[in-house]
Amino acid sequence: MSELFPLVSIITPAKNRAALLRETICSVLVQSYPNWEMLIIDDASTDNTVDMLKEFSSEKRIIYQQRKGETGGAQVCRNQGIEMANGKYLILLDSDDLLTETCLEKRVKYIKEHNDLDFAVFPTIIFGWEYPDYDTYWNLPNGKDEISRFLNWDPLWQTASVIWKKTSLQSVSPFNENTLSFQDIEIHIKALLIGLKHQFVSTDTDNFHREHEGERIGHHTHNTEHLYSHERLLHTFYQQLNEKEMLTRQRKTSLAGFYFRVCNFWIQQNNLEKAKELWHQVSEMKLTSNFTYFTALLYFNYLSLNKKEDIPLISRLRYVFYKLLPPDFFLFNNTWKKLKKR
Fold first, then answer.
1. By the 8 A CB rule, do 103 and 54 touch?
2. 8-210, what's its fold?
3. Mean pLDDT over residues 260-274, rounded?
4. Is the pLDDT of residue 59 over 80?
5. What pLDDT shows up at residue 106?
6. Whole-model pTM?
7. What is the Cα–Cα distance from 340 to 152, expressed in whole angstroms?
8. Domain extents for the chain?
9. For residue 271, how many other CB atoms are within 10 A of its CB?
10. Averaged over 173-192, what is the pLDDT?
11. Quick check: 120 pLDDT over 90?
C-alpha cells in the first residue's frame, strides 16, 4: 500500500483547544485517502484535551504525544512532530484548522505527478467560528516577489496550505525554537532562500484556516519578549538575503517595512527610544533612503505623542505620513481580507 498510497504524516501542535481539536481530528478521519498518521503534540494543555482524545482511542492512526522538555511553543511541538513522523509527505495542520474530505487524496496525487517539487501549495479559505462566516481566501498569487510578500506580512500561504516532501522540509527545519512568533513566515522564507522547488496549485480549496480570539500557543506577539524575538528574526533575514546577494530593492523596502511595524509595537509599549534605536539599525543596513528614514523618525515621535486618532488635526497629520512613507509599511497583514471567494 505504501507505493500506491505513500504515508502522509499530519503534525498538529495543540494547547487548550479540546473542542476545536475534535473538529480538526474529525476532518482528518473522513479523508478519502487511507494511508495517514496524525501526530498530536500537546504543549502542556490544562483543559480536557486528554479526556477528549479518549474518544478516538480505537483509531491507531492518531498518535498523541506530550511535548518533551521544558521549552514550549508551536515551533517546539512541530519540531518534535517532524522528528516522530514516518511519512514520505508531511502536512503541518494547526489544532483549529480543517481539511476537506479529498484534501490528502488530491495533494498526494499532485505531488506524485510532479515529483520534481519539494512542496506544493493549495488555496486556503479563512473562516471564524463557523464556516463560511468569512468565505475569504487566505491569499492568492499576484505575480509579485514571494519573499517580499512574506516580509510584507502578506504571505501567499500558511502552514496547512502546504504538502511537503519530508526530506525537503527537513532541509529547512528544525523550526527555530527561539522564534516566539512568525515561525511560519520564517520557515517559508528559508525554503524560498535555498531555492526549494514549489508550485501554487490553482484548484478547489482543500483546507480552512480559523481566525478567532481563543487561546493560541503563540498569542502575545506584541509584548517585550516577542518584540526582541521579532528583531532577532529580522536580523537573520537581513543577513541571509545579504550573504546570498538576494537583497533586491523591493526586498529592502519590504524588510524595512517589517522593521517599521516592530518599531510601532515598541511605541505601543511606550518605548520610543527602543523604536528609534532599531530604526537607526535599518539606516545603517541601508534598507531605506535618508528621506524615508527621517520621515519615519518624525512619524514615531508623532505616534508617541498622539495615540488618539479621534482628533481631526491628528488624523489629518497621520494621512500625510501615509502619503510620504512607502505603502508597504502600512499593510498590517490584511491583504487577504480583500480576496473574496469567487
1. no
2. Spore Coat Polysaccharide Biosynthesis Protein SpsA; Chain A (3.90.550)
3. 94
4. yes
5. 97
6. 0.90
7. 20
8. 8-210, 224-336
9. 17
10. 91
11. yes
- Residue 166: all three cell numbers together: 519530508
Q: Is the dihedral of CA 246, 253, 201, 183 positive or negative?
A: positive
pLDDT at residue 307 in the model: 65
Give residues with Cβ within 8 angstroms of 12, minimum separation 6: 21, 24, 38, 39, 40, 41, 81, 93, 94, 95
The one-letter amino acid at 296 = A
User: What would the pLDDT profile of 129-177 be if each residue is shown by its tens digit?
Assistant: 666 666 688 888 888 899 999 998 888 899 999 999 999 999 998 999 9
Contact yes or no for 7/40 (Cβ under 8 A): no
d(CA 324, CA 296): 9
